[in-house]
């Protein structure tokens, strides 16, 4: 199976998954979305109210904020793959339980293996904990570490920054540093940035032409 087929297979399985109790209150599972060959994978915590309704990641207020943070770093949502450590909404948006994280991890591992991103950006302490066990988000946010053969950047969760005004300047500063970190990671891996979409040929400006 190629990467796209593996991601589709995982999505099919999580849609009917009953491996943990979260399926009882699930409306739609949220497998994640984005290009199967994404250079960058963003991993959040778990679906919230709107994600559970729509089956798509980060579509509520924190999703809009995330889209803005990415834009600030010169990235479009469609450039990156976005998913979560748990694929079904914890009731009332409570934190995912250790057994839910452990059970759902097999899906995330298959997604990471299929996409094979150069860079993983963790959003919040649960996804950070997968790659930087024992680290504290208050100390490592905005930092990048080599984990195996890829780089992991830990960021605060956008929802945390929305709810705690004091975190907002930090998350803005961390995402502002992102282009620099991405360059560093690409250098470290000996890779270049993926090709940007071909630019439209600029049309002749009639005002300019009339000068000649
Ligand atoms: N918060 C998350 O961690 N993930 C989502 O998909 C939405 C909000």
Low-confidence stretches: 205-212
Number of domains: 1
CATH class: Alpha Beta
CATH architecture: 3-Layer(aba) Sandwich
Task: Give the bound compounds.
Answer: uracil
Number-wise, the strands total 5
**Mean pLDDT across residues:** 93
Strand content is 5-15%
- Could you tell me how far the N terminus lies from the C terminus, measured between alpha carbons in angstroms? 58 Å
Major sheet: arrangement of strands: 2-1-3-5-4
- Spatial extent as radius of gyration: 19 Å
Give the CATH topology: Uracil-DNA Glycosylase, subunit E
- Helix residue percentage: 40-55%
Return the string of H and E elements.
HEHHEHEHHEEHHHH
Structural class: alpha/beta
Gross morphology is: globular
CATH 4th-level superfamily: Uracil-DNA glycosylase-like domain
Per DSSP, the total helix count is 10
The major beta sheet can be summarized as:
5 strands, mixed
Fill in the keyword field for this structure:
binds uracil, 5 strands, disordered C terminus, 43% helix, 5-stranded mixed beta sheet, alpha/beta, Uracil-DNA Glycosylase, subunit E, 212 residues
């Amino acid at each position: 199976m190629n990467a796209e087929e593996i991601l589709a297979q995982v999505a099919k399985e999580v849609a009917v998954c009953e491996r943990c109790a979260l399926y009882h209150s699930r409306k739609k599972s949220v497998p994640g979305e984005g290009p199967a060959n994404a250079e960058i994978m963003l991993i959040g915590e778990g679906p919230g109210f709107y994600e559970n309704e729509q089956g798509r990641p980060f579509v509520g207020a924190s999703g809009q904020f995330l889209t803005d943070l990415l834009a600030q770093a010169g990235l479009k949502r469609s450039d990156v793959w976005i998913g979560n450590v748990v694929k079904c909404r914890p009731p009332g948006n409570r934190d995912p339980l250790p057994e839910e994280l452990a059970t759902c991890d097999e899906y995330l591992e298959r997604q990471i293996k299929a996409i094979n991103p150069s860079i993983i950006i963790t959003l919040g302490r649960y996804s950070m904990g997968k790659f930087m066990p024992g680290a504290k988000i208050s100390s490592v946010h905005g930092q990048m570490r080599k984990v195996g053969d890829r780089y992991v950047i830990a960021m605060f969760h956008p929802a945390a920054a929305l709810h705690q005004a004091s975190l907002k300047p930090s998350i803005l500063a961390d995402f502002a540093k992102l282009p620099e970190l991405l360059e560093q990671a690409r250098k470290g891996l000996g890779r270049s940035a993926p090709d940007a979409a071909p630019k439209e040929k600029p049309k002749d400006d009639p005002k300019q032409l009339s000068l000649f």
